[in-house]
Sequence to fold (514 residues):
Amino acid sequence: MPKPSFGCLVCRSRRVKCDERIGGCLNCERYGASCPGYQDRFDVMLRLRTPLVTGSPQAQNPPSPRRDDGQTVEETPRGQQMLDGAPVTWDNAYRTLEIRRPLHLHSDDVALAMHYSSYCIDFSAVWSPEQIQTQGNGCLFSAIKVLGNISRLQRWSLPDGSATVWKDYSDAIQLLNSALASPLESRTDSTLLATMIMGAIETKAAPSRSFDYWEMHTKGAAALLQLRGPNQVTSRLGSALFFQTSSYMTTVCILSGQRIPEDLHRLRNATNPLLVDPAHPLWKYQGAMFRITDFAAATRTDVSQLEDQEIQHIIVDALNVYEELQAVFSGADAAWQYDRIPSARFSSLVDHEHVYQTQLATQLWNGYRTAVVILCTVVARIAKRLPSQVCLDDQAQAFLNNAAYIINQVAVDTIAAVPRPPAALGSSHNPGYGSYARHAPVFQETQPDSQAVPYMHGCPLQWSVYFAANCEFIEPRVRECLLDILENAAKAMEIQQWKISAEKLRLELRGVPK
Fold:
C-alpha cells in the first residue's frame, strides 16, 4: 500500500512534506499562499485501498475483469451507450466497463481506516492490516477491528450489522484472554493497548454500564502497567502508554472516590531516575493528578462532621495542590500554550476561543481544568457550610473566599476550549494538531519501539465539561451552555458518551433553578 498523503494541495503539488498545522501549514505561510486545508483521512485511506479500473483502447486482448463472485463484468456496446444518452469521449468511444456492484473493499481495510480516522493522533506511520496483524498474538488488530466496525455501523452501514460486531468482539476477547495468560505476551505494547481499546469498545456497546466496564478494563490495564516495570518508559511508545494508562486510572479513581493504588505510586517513583527533565509539563501534570485524586478520596466526608483543625488542614492541603496544578505549565515552551482568538460562537458568554498547538497540550489543559473544578468544589463547599471562622493565613483565606469564582472562570475557559466540529473526532478529524513528537521526550529514550501500534487519544474535554456542569457553584447560564455542549457533541463530534453524560446531568439537575 502506498504511503498516504494527508497534506494540503499546495504542499502535495510542490512535493514537500506538509506539517498540517492547525489554521494553515507552515509551508503555505512561507510561500505567502492561502492554505487550502487538508484531506479527510478516512477518504484517503479508502482511496488507497480501492483498485482503479480503466479501459484502454490500445490494450490488446485484455483479461476479462471479474467480480468478487467470479462472474465476468459485462461490456456495454458503443451503440447502446449512445442510446442511453451517455457522453461519448475518446476514452470511452470503444468500450465502457459497466460495474454492476461496488468495487470490493475488504472489511479489515475499512475497519482500520475508521480507526485511523476517528481515534488516532499520530500519523507518522500508517500501517496496513497485514502489518498490524503481526503485532503480538493478533489481539490488538482484533480490538481495533471491533472498534472501527462499531464506528462504521454508527456512521454508515455494515454488512450483517450487529451480528458482525458481536462475532468480531468474541474473537477479540478470546485473543486478549490468551495474551493475558501468556507471561511473554502480557508484557507487550499490543496487549496493553488492546486492553484499553476493549474498554472503549464496551463503553460504546453498553453505555448504561460504561463506567463499570471502563473501571474493569482500566484496572486491568493498570495491572499490566505495573507488570511491565519502570523500563517500559524508555521507548517512545512505552512512555505514551504509561501516561495514557495512568490517566485512565486516575479518572476511574476520581469517579469511584478511590485513592491511586500504591503500586502505581511506586511505579512512578521507580521511573523518576529515567527522567530527562523533572519540570516537563506531562510529568508535573501526572504528579498533580495523583495528588488531586487522593485529595478527592480523602475529603468525601460531610464538612459539618469535621473539627475546625481538620477543616483548616483540608484548606491548606487544597491550596498546596492548587499551586502544584498552576505550576504544571509554568516555564513550558510555546508548544504547550494556546492562543485566544475573537469568537462569537457562544454569544455574549465567551467572546473568544482557544487554539492549541498540539493534541497533547489540549488534553493536559482540559485535564487541568477538570482537576481545578474538583478541587475548588470541595473548598467552596467548606466556605458555604463553615460552622465557624477557621483560623487561616491570608493566602489560604483568599483561596477559600475565591473558590467559587475560580470555578466559574475555569468553566468559561472550558467552553472556549470546545473545538469546532471540523476539528473534532470523526470523519472530519482536523490534522492540525501535532503528534507527540512535537514535544520533548519525558524520559530517556534508550530503546526503539518494540512494536508499531497506532496511538489512541482519550477525550479529557468531556470530563472538564461534565464536572463543571455538575458543580453547584456554576452560574446558571454557564451551566446551560455546558449542558448544550454535551448534548450537541454527540451530533457534531459523534461522541455518544457525551450525550449520555448530558442526559444523566439533566436528570440530576431537574430541581436546580435556572
Summary: Residues 359-385 form the longest helix (27 residues). Residues 42-103, 121-125, 422-437 have pLDDT under 50 and may be disordered.
